[in-house]
Hints:
The protein has 66 residues and is mainly beta. It contains no helices and five strands. This is DUF1918 domain-containing protein.
Amino acid sequence: MRATVGDQLVQHGRVVGQHDKVGEIVEVLGRDGDPPYRVRFEDGHEGICSPGPDTEIRHREVVTRH
């Protein structure tokens, strides 16, 4: 799993009715985009995360200008 600053980290709910937890990666602490990541979640909480199998990285779209 590799990420860059600005990507979203999504922790999927583990039980029925539990919502996904979405945060923005604000710092990559591993080498070459590897975990751990410092993540700022929607509620303002920040934490260090080493994603597990219930987590996905949503890469931000890079807009190029001509």
